[in-house]
Fold this protein.
Amino acid sequence: MALTQPVSQPGASHLDLPENVVVSRLDELASWCRKNSLWPMPFATACCGIELMATGAAKHDLARFGAEVFRFSPRQCDLMIVAGRVVMKMLPVLQRIWQQMHEPKWCISMGACASTGGVFDTYAVVQGIDRFIPVDMYVPGCPPRPEQLIQAIIDLQDKIQREGTITGREFNTRQRQQRKRALVEIPQLLTVDASRNPNLQRQLAGSARDLHDPSDLQ
Amino acid sequence: MSSPSDTLHESSPAPTEANPHREALEQAYGPLEYSVYRGQQRVVVPAEKSFDVLALLKQRGFDLLVDVSCVDYLEYRGATDRYGLIYLLASTTSNERLTVRAFVNDPEPAIASVVPLWKAANWLEREVWDMFGIHFTGHPDLRRLVMPEAFTAHPLRKDYPLQGRGERHNFPVITRDHS
């Protein structure tokens, strides 16, 4: 059990817990289990599938992230990795397989072709699978290196932990809509109360340039 | 329809050399446009006679149909017909090869199917139907081979836009709500 921080709630402090007992929320626990045992559904249609295989193989070893159990039945999977271009004839198959997967489930669009159609801007190639099925993570690259796919799985694990769900029906809640980690703005660095810092007051009286000198800030 | 490079590389066997296939064909169907390029023989036949010509060639030993293909000559320099069909024949006994060409035109381009002669023509002609819309009369199962069955266009025609006419976006959208 790797839940390191028991949730301390007001009023709960008087509880006399025995050793090695932690208290958490059920959906935190469920998300923690899910994110560390993702079973991918390999929907590999092109060269990205080769990188997908390399990711699962010994050198890159997807088992380190608990996602090595590729299953070829959508009934057993909870992560669909679409690796490669999807053509008009394949899209109904893709949608059917997605619908056959049980909730909760996630989708990674791997590579330029699955995400945008890539160089195949022709009459038969779907220009991005996210037009027709929901996608949680996009992996850029043509094809992406295994490290990039692993990064996507790590980010997806963050997302799963953040958006905890018991039944999978909570996916459309407000939490689901929160911005992805990479898109969150960097918080303002300079929130300084100058009234308690005479040194800083002097600086402010001088030039505004010195305000941005980090050596003055504790 | 010969480009300048054809004459540059015109080579053996010499056109004057005795050619039994050509003689047999011209005896049966009159003078035909027959050419030899780097030892490869080509003959252009009228579309309405193509089945008989190919049947005769099969009798003469061309027992292997290598390919059936098509070219769209829309807006092609010097072209007089729109679709050029290509039959690549080979003989497994004499090791000869022969290219037979026939031209068809809009509207409703059609030519006789050669499935009764070579079963290999079945899927080859289905592909040409799929991509160019050439109707092969007498074909036992003329369905699309590559594109989805609901597809209506013939995408290798030159007047079909490369990015299609929106067919690739004509699918239901599955969201998180109903999946």
About this structure: Residues 4-169 of chain B form a domain with the Beta Polymerase; domain 2 fold (CATH 3.30.460.80). The CA atoms of residues 132 and 154 of chain B lie 5 Å apart. Chain B has a mean pLDDT of 86.
